[in-house]
Amino acid sequence: MNIKTLTLTLLLGFASLQARAEMTMSHQGHDMSQMAGMEMADTTMTRGVISRIDAANGKVGIKHEAISNLKMPPMTMTFRVADPALLEGFEVGDAVNFHATNPAGKLTVTMLQKQ
What's the pLDDT score for residue 5? Predict the structure, then answer.
């Protein structure tokens, strides 16, 4: 195979891959209205009361209502916090709204706000 044939083959292959990537990433023709609902479901807030704060280890104890996005009943438990800065300004006994996720089996508070 000569250099011109090789170059042409590579260029055509690259163009084909680029066209496939653009088609894959296009949302034209898709009903994106359901995405808004999914995003809202992903950030469902739960009510609770802070029962302990361990800022040094990035943990917070919360007595909480049922956590719908995790299908978890009401209880008191300790969560990791996604960012220790989330705990700033909070004290034991504060009523809060929070969002928790369970990445890799590690319950984590990703949003925390006073009620």
Answer: 72
